[in-house]
Amino acid sequence: MSDPEEPRRSADTASSETKPGQGAPEGAPGGAHAPAPEPGQESAPGSGPDAEAVAVTDAGADIASESDAEPDPESGRESDPGAAPMPANDDADAPGAPPPSAVPPRWLRIFGHSGIAQILLVIVTLAAFVPGFWSVPPLDRDEPRFAQASRQMLETGNYSDIRFQEETRYKKPVGIYWLQVAAAKVTGYGADAPIWVYRLPSIAGAILAALLTFWAARAFTGPPQAFLAALFVALALVVGVEARLAKTDAMLFATIVASQGALARMWLSGKAKQPLRLVLTFWIALGLGILIKGPVAPMVVGLTIAALVTMNRRGRWLASLRPLLGLGILVVLVAPWFIAIGIATKGAFFQEALGRDLIGKLGQGQESHGAPPLTHLAVMFGTFWPMPAFLLAAIASAIRNRRAAIVQFCVAWVVPSWIVFELVATKLPHYTMPLLPGLAILTAFGLVTTADAAPRKWLVWIMALVLAIVPVVFAVASIAGPLMLSVSPSPPGVVLCVFAAVVAIYAVRKLIAGPVINAVPRVVLTALLLYAGVWGFVMPSLSPIWVSPRLAEAADGASGCAKAEIFSVGFNEPSFIFLTATDTRLGSAQEAATWISGAGALPDCRVVAVESRYEGDFLAKAKALGVALALSSRVEGVNINGGRKLDIAVYKRTNQ
After folding, report:
1. Boundaries of domain holding 612
2. What is the pLDDT of residues 543-582, one digit of tens each?
3. Whether residue 492 is found in the same domain as residue 445
4. Residue 33 Cα to chain centre, angstroms
5. What is the DSSP string of 601-634?
6. Three-class SS state of 34
7. Do 189 and 299 share a domain, yes or no?
8. Helix (H, G, I), strand (E, B) or coil at 463
9. 221 lies in some domain
10. How far is CA 578 from CA 203, 581, 582, 606, 641, in A?
11. Which of 70, 84, 68 is CA-nearest to residue 32?
């Protein structure tokens, strides 16, 4: 930045003096002089009243070269990778004041090169998300509920109503079910699709979220810094979990990041008229987010807009969102299904989704998921790992550069919605995931702009603890967990987890030696090793917690028919329904005994799985009815929800 006492230099001079390693953010003006704003038009955030050029500082851009030039999304021109930082405003506290420039480390300039950054992101996300994708059984309870409801759409051909067996499931809109149905049809499995097919929209959403984080960050900065932010998203523990679960959150995540990326570009531009593709991206992504999980996407995006307007006291740029066009897009995308389901259910969907599910979560913790305020902040150090360790180092830079556009947008993205999530009574770890990219972009910005500045020693040791504790805990758990369940640890899983912990220690040493940013490559390796070990080997080997797959296999083995008829007593997990059949019955011991003795039954087809607590009642009722039973097998294990030990007997009817 220029000395405030010196005369303001022209944009041409500033551009010619740009350091190697600085590039322009995507959408930064490619020429030396920006056109003057039209009369009555607001200047873009970050421009002073007499600024001669509009450009956003690239605190972590690529080496300036002609080959790095990328199209300007606002004008279609090639942006100048060597564009200068924005001239300093007379008012140092003006919103969007440029942060100090810095050259990213060599490894980040290489891997964050605009030509390969996105390819590397796809490779990293696949390496992080694929282990265990096929081998981990359905994880109770939400995942099999979503997958089973989608399967029933395929079985019945009714793609508007949402049901789990005969029970209506009116908690979420239909978007994710349609995506799962599409995945089952495209892969050719149809209603017989295994669980991994229903997970395909989730892994696609998680990969898209990482790539869209890169795109969102490019509104403010160059490829290296954007690549670093996207890495933090791709490696976050919670993103890896949601990528492997057939539910709403990963795809919702992608829609929110897409809307926020478009919003960032329109806010930075400040122009009344925006490219149609940005407007369409914003509203279509928002509409898809509503179809997937109702009000969450509008809440995050709406609070971001409100915070930006409040911080800068500027609102005229909102016209660039073209709200009338946007309302039309939302009506076209969202209204048909909402109208259809409202008519079909006579309003029951809205009573359940809004009156019970949404409002119920606001007032009290549902399904034992209540927690006090600040819970999300505390668990973030685990769910967002490994990013929080580096966030601690970046906070000081964000505070110093609080008027920078990139900082203002990230704060607007994160803080208001985070407060809402903390105040909501029901708390689950993935609720704050849509805010992760804002923190990741802020962290990448802080690391690059302070790459040569060492944090205080006490802070470095806290960062080291946050960084090391997760892989060390998982390494210990990879051995202790199986032993506690009375099974042998998985040798490949243990080796990978222990190796990950060792690499994490080396990363900590690099972090302590500094610069902090140079610990990132070892952290990437740590995370990939850890996820491969945990998801690829340790989790599938924990057979005692995977009761449903073993029980379904035992029931099929007990039946003498191609398709067993099953009645379950005392074990009602949704995964068991998904792994058996939609018509699997659930009920009491007396009902099961009456059912298996029913007139006209095919004795060889009917099987009862009864938990040991109800076994005596079942046998007594069957004896009273004169039904001869044979014990086929027993399945023991631990219920993953609550940790209760299970002992389930599988009975079949005999002719004796």
Report:
1. 546-653
2. 999 999 999 999 999 987 888 899 999 999 999 999 999 9
3. no
4. 40
5. --TTTEEEEEEHHHHHHHHHHHHHTT--EEEEEE
6. coil
7. yes
8. helix
9. yes
10. 20, 6, 7, 18, 17
11. 84
- Cα separations (Å) of 11 from 5, 33, 34, 52, 474? 17, 6, 9, 6, 53
- 483 vs 74: CA distance, rounded Å: 58
The verdict on whether omega for the bond into residue 141 sits within 30 degrees of 0, i.e. cis, is: yes
The phi-psi region of residue 383 (left if phi > 0; otherwise alpha if psi is between -120 and 50; otherwise beta) is alpha
- Residues 135, 278, single domain; the answer is yes
Residues 368, 464, single domain; the answer is no
Radius of gyration of the chain (CA): 28
CATH number, domain of 599, equals: 3.30.950
Residue-wise pLDDT tens digits, 581-625: 999 999 999 999 999 988 565 667 899 999 999 999 999 999 999
Tell me: do 513 and 598 sit in the same domain: no
Single out the residue of 492, 497, 491 nearest to residue 526, CA to CA. Answer: 497
With left for phi above 0 and alpha for psi between -120 and 50, is residue 279 left, alpha or beta? Answer: alpha
- Answer with the one of 542, 571, 596 that is the final residue of a domain: 542
Note whether 24 and 75 are within 8 A (CB).
no
pLDDT at position 20, please? 36
Residue % of the chain over a pLDDT of 90: 70
Residues 6+ away with beta carbon under 8 Å from 189: 197
Confidence of residue 355 (pLDDT cuts 50, 70, 90): low
For 364-403, the pLDDT digits (tens) are: 545 556 688 999 999 999 999 999 999 999 999 899 999 9
CA-to-CA dists, residue 162 to 144, 171, 349, 396, angstroms: 14, 9, 10, 48
Look up residue 536 and give its DSSP letter: I
Give residue 108's identity as a one-letter amino acid code.
L
Q: What is the pLDDT of residues 186-214, one digit of tens each?
A: 999 999 999 999 999 999 999 999 999 99
Q: Residue 274 and residue 267: Cα distance in Å, rounded?
A: 10
pTM of this prediction?
Answer: 0.85
Give 455's DSSP letter.
P
Does residue 96 lie in a domain region? no
What's the structural domain count of the chain? Answer: 3
pLDDT at residue 475 tops 60: yes
Is there a domain that residue 107 lies in?
Answer: no
E-strand ranges in 6-128 read none
* Cβ(222)–Cβ(24) below 8 Å: yes
237: amino acid identity, one letter: L
DSSP class per residue in 555-618: HHHH-SSSS-EEEEES---HHHHHHS-TT-EE--HHHHHHHHT-TT--TTTEEEEEEHHHHHHH
636 and 593 within one domain? yes
Distance between CA atoms of 160 and 177, rounded to whole angstroms?
9
Specify the higher pLDDT residue, 596 or 58: 596
**419 and 486 housed in the same domain:** no
Q: Which of 632, 631, 650, 629 is nearest to 547 (CA)?
A: 650
Per-residue pLDDT tens over the stretch 628-651: 999 999 999 999 988 999 999 999
Q: Does 284 share its domain with 353?
A: yes
Query: Residue 248: which of 184, 294, 211 has the closest Cα?
Result: 294
Among 525, 542, 559, the domain-final residue is 542
pLDDT at 350: 79
